[in-house]
From TrEMBL:
InterPro entries, per database record: FAR, FAR_C, FAR_NAD-bd, NAD(P)-bd_dom_sf
Keywords, in A-Z order: Lipid biosynthesis, Lipid metabolism, NADP, Oxidoreductase
Presence of keyword Phosphoprotein: no
Protein's recorded name: Fatty acyl-CoA reductase
PANTHER family assigned: ACYL-COA REDUCTASE-LIKE PROTEIN, PUTATIVE-RELATED, MALE STERILITY PROTEIN 2-RELATED
Domain Fatty acyl-CoA reductase C-terminal: 234-335
Family per similarity comment: Belongs to the fatty acyl-CoA reductase family.
Domain Thioester reductase (TE) residue range list: 35-146
Database matches in SUPFAM superfamilies: NAD(P)-binding Rossmann-fold domains
GO molecular function: alcohol-forming long-chain fatty acyl-CoA reductase activity; alcohol-forming very long-chain fatty acyl-CoA reductase activity
Catalytic activity: a long-chain fatty acyl-CoA + 2 NADPH + 2 H(+) = a long-chain primary fatty alcohol + 2 NADP(+) + CoA
Organism, as annotated: Cannabis sativa
Gene Ontology biological process terms, A to Z: long-chain fatty-acyl-CoA metabolic process; suberin biosynthetic process
E.C. designation(s): 1.2.1.84
Length: 336
């Protein structure tokens, strides 16, 4: 639900209460302690990432990305005082739907690392529940939601708790989930199929100038089975290949290095995306739907409504992913 995150709240039972100010102090102390040891900056960065992940998991968050989002909301709640605030919670942000033009994106975002890895032939297996909803929203729709929210709440009083008056936008928390899982869901199985369909017809080109032929790959919905598969099909053969590369480097070293990179890529991505590709939740967007209604009231014409559209129901996921998003990633990110 589109509810506030209060100071002290956690996602799992723990004897400690979550306090963003304490977390900031602990992070600063950890950083000072590492720097006092005179170790290199890359090692400091690595240790700080591990420390952040440890703190996130302690309170029930799967990674530091979502953990610090929660801390940020707690900070806003603590210090906003009488300042009117709006909190926008986007789901996985993808390339633009229309503006400034369809498919524009900077850098790999969310599931695109998996999509590109698949297209390059580097990912032939992955962990995901095929029925898991991939809650995505195009970047320009997110920006539209932010603009409309600012206009709707300009010069209003601070957030108030909701009541039975559903037509008054000031009478509920100014928190908006901007996503698609409730009104226009698309699952991982469909995303996988669309990715395979696109790269089969529009293959990427390897360093030798030849098209990369991909397989559909295997998707495991269970972590235990995935680990067994990786052990038997990759890790044990890699260990044998490592021995052969040492004994016969001119024959096996390149193969070992390439295979090890693929193994590490899949392992890293699985750990990164596991909280999302096995996630069963749906994000309610009742407040966002009210905001869309408010936008229609404020607009002077249908063209204006369309210009600031952020309704996920208008998205045809097959058309968007195959004809807009994946080509956009190919053009603006991998540039091949």
């Amino acid at each position: 639900m589109e509810k506030e995150v209060y100071q002290g709240e956690t996602l799992k039972s723990t004897s400690s209460k979550l306090d963003f100010e304490i977390e900031m102090k602990l992070a600063a102390q950890k950083l000072d302690a590492l720097r006092s040891q005179g170790i290199s900056e890359p090692l400091i960065a690595s240790d700080m990432r591990d420390f952040g992940l440890q703190r996130a998991k302690k309170f029930g968050w799967p990674n530091t990305y979502v953990f610090t989002k929660a801390l940020g909301e707690m900070c806003i709640g603590q210090y906003k005082d009488s300042l009117p605030t709006v909190i926008i919670r986007p789901t996985m942000i993808t390339s633009t739907y229309k503006e400034p033009f369809p498919g524009w994106i900077e850098g790999l975002r969310t599931v695109d690392s998996v999509v590109v890895g698949h297209g390059k032939g580097k990912i032939t297996c992955f962990l995901a529940d095929p029925s898991c909803i991939m809650d995505m929203i195009p970047g320009d729709m997110l920006i539209n939601a932010m603009i409309v929210a600012m206009v709707a709440h300009a010069n209003q009083c601070p957030s108030r708790t909701s009541n039975n008056n559903n037509n008054n936008i000031t009478n509920y928390n100014n928190i908006y989930h901007v996503g698609s899982s409730l009104r226009n869901p698309v699952n991982f199985s469909s995303l996988h199929q669309f990715s395979y369909s696109y790269f089969t017809k529009n293959p990427l080109i390897n360093m030798d100038g030849k098209p990369i032929i991909i397989s559909k790959g295997i998707v495991f919905s269970n972590m235990a089975i995935f680990r067994i598969y990786m052990l038997l099909c990759y890790l044990i053969p890699l260990q044998i290949l490592q021995l052969l590369s040492k004994a016969f480097p001119s024959y096996f070293r390149d193969l070992y290095v390439t295979s090890m990179r693929k193994f590490n890529l899949v392992t890293r991505l699985v750990q990164l995306y596991k909280p999302y590709v096995l996630f069963k939740g749906i994000f309610d967007d009742t407040n966002s739907e009210r905001l869309r209604g408010k936008a229609r009231e404020m607009s002077s014409s249908n063209d204006e409504v369309d210009l600031f559209n952020f309704d996920p129901k208008c998205i045809d996921w097959k058309d968007y992913l195959i004809n807009i998003h994946i080509p956009g990633v190919k053009k603006f990110v991998i540039k091949k």
